[in-house]
Design goal:
The chain is of the alpha+beta class. It is built from 6 helices and 17 strands. The strands form 2 sheets. The chain has a 9-stranded antiparallel β-sheet with strand order 4-3-2-1-6-7-8-9-5. An 8-stranded antiparallel β-sheet has the order 13-12-11-10-14-15-16-17, with no helix packed on it. Strand 14 and strand 15 form a beta hairpin.
Length: 313
């Protein structure tokens, strides 16, 4: 009898401990249910209308991406709304929509600082119309050699739990506004180009064209194939890095380059002279102006013609 009583007592104690453990594991002090979340973000990617990103460095401005009628724009410190290519925004939305937790890293507010998901983290808020549909704190990055993996610790803003997810999220979210902007000057690789027409403000013109056989001619004169390809490789898919948002053209460009591709589509690149600096602008990216001296982008596009004949290399 005593043995049976002891077994019953132990059973009751075990059941009580089990209930206490379950309560601590699945419930917060305010009674809200806490369970492991695999999908940390639930958004309709087609309905996202605004994204706010507060960087880790709180001295830097918040990033505000807004969907407009003809695409997406990012708000600069100056108040300018600069165009953002859709693929750059798609990368942000896809990263959020596909985010899945690998494991629960912590269930205590006292460990937020350890995982940098407190005020030191990057906060990302997503809106669909007037509704906030996601609010995350992106924290510490973790890299493991064996097995090789890159993960980031993340917390939902109104939750205590800290999760570990795949990927180096800082590379997507913790960036300067200009890195999201459209920085194209030329598009396509040079192999798609058929004709380049240069028109200078002093009336000087010349044309570099490719024959059906793939040979390049400068105003009818056959150029050196290797030298021409070398020059054009540098000019294809050219991108700017230093935006000159305060620049406004007050005169005609020094030179206009019109590029025509193999589909007979064409666009123009304009070079303006400002003191000792050249400023570049492209018809495929009309609102952006770039410092042409950065990475020698002016020289890559408006090269010395003698180099096309193997001279001065």
């Amino acid at each position: 009898m005593l043995n049976n009583v002891s077994n019953k007592t132990l059973g009751v104690i075990f059941l009580g401990l089990l209930i206490i453990f379950a309560s601590l594991y699945f419930f917060e002090g305010d009674g809200n249910e806490r369970s492991f979340k695999e999908d940390l973000v639930k958004i309709d990617s087609t309905s996202v209308s605004k994204i706010l990103v507060q960087p880790k460095d709180k001295t830097k401005p918040e990033l505000e991406f807004t969907k407009v009628e003809n695409g997406w724009k990012v708000k600069l410190v100056s108040g300018i709304l600069a165009p953002v290519p859709y693929n750059n925004i798609k990368g942000i939305i896809d990263q959020l929509a596909e985010m899945k937790s690998k494991r629960l890293a912590a269930r205590s507010k006292s460990r937020w600082n350890e995982y940098q998901v407190d005020s030191s983290g990057t906060r990302v808020q997503v809106f669909e119309g007037d509704n906030k549909t996601a609010d995350l704190i992106i924290g510490k990055f973790n890299f493991q050699q064996q097995p090789r993996s890159m993960t980031t610790f993340v917390r939902i803003a109104n939750d205590i739990d800290v999760y570990e997810v795949d990927g180096f999220l800082d590379a997507t979210f913790n960036r300067e506004a200009n890195t999201f902007r459209d920085n194209r000057i030329t598009k396509e690789g040079y192999t798609r180009w058929r004709k380049l027409e240069y028109n200078y403000s002093d009336g000087q013109t010349y044309t570099l064209s490719k024959s059906e056989e793939g040979r390049w001619f400068l105003d009818g004169a056959l150029t050196d194939s290797a030298s021409t390809v070398s020059a054009l490789q540098k000019a294809g898919n050219l991108k700017g890095t230093d935006f000159l948002d305060d620049f406004t053209p007050d005169k005609e460009p020094l030179v206009k380059l019109t590029v025509t591709n193999d589909l007979e589509d064409s666009y123009s690149v304009f070079a303006y002279q400002q003191d000792s600096t050249f400023v570049l602008n492209s018809s495929i990216n009309e609102t952006s102006y770039f410092d042409g001296s950065t990475n020698d982008i002016f020289s890559k596009l408006f090269f010395d013609r003698s180099k096309l004949f193997g001279e001065g290399d």
